[in-house]
Amino acid sequence: QVQLVEFGGGLVQPGGSLRLSCKASSRTLLGFSLITMGWYRQADGNKRELVATMTDGGTANYAESVKGRFTISRDTAKNTVYLQMNTLIPEDTAVYYCTGSDYEDHDYWGQGTQVTVSS
After folding, report:
1. Distance in angstroms (rounded) separating the CA atoms of residues 41 and 113
2. What is the distance between the alpha carbons of residues 30 and 39, in angstroms, rounded to a whole number?
3. Which of 1, 2, 56, 117 could connect to 88 by a Cys-Cys bridge, CB 3.0–4.6 Å?
4. For residue range 8-52, what is the model confidence (pLDDT) as tens digits?
5. How far is CA 43 from the centre of its chain?
């Protein structure tokens, strides 16, 4: 079993920046690796939606709504993924969930971290 823990959410004014990070760990799987890590978000009353993902080979995929504002990166050796969010707008307000998938098609999710963009 793999656990994902997010860090870095909070309250920011429109136009501001935040950086989220997420570390994957396991007490039972030594030397595990995740083929894909990334971020989804869910705003009140909405379905969970893709924000950005990155493969272990470095291929990134972004939602159209965040292209040019958000940047995903990962440190594969540390099993950590980051999301740099710039030029935040109120519509970015949501709970952000870290996700990862392994080579056996198991999907893992973090507990989520709240991001609120408001003046």
Report:
1. 9
2. 24
3. 117
4. 999 999 999 999 999 998 888 777 789 899 999 999 999 999 999
5. 14
Residue pair 14/88 in contact (Cβ under 8 Å)? The answer is yes
DSSP 76: G
Indicate the burial class of 53 (C-beta count within 10 angstroms; 0-12, 13-18, 19 or more).
Answer: buried
Pairwise CA distance, residues 16 & 86, whole Å: 6
- The values of phi and psi at residue 91, to 5°, are -70, -10
In the chain, where do the E strands start and end? Answer: 3-7, 10-12, 18-25, 34-42, 49-55, 60-62, 70-75, 80-85, 94-102, 107-109, 113-117
Give dist(CA 49, CA 101) in Å, integer.
16
**CB–CB of 98/6 below 8 Å?**
yes
The two three-digit tokens of residue 98, written as one number: 């870290």
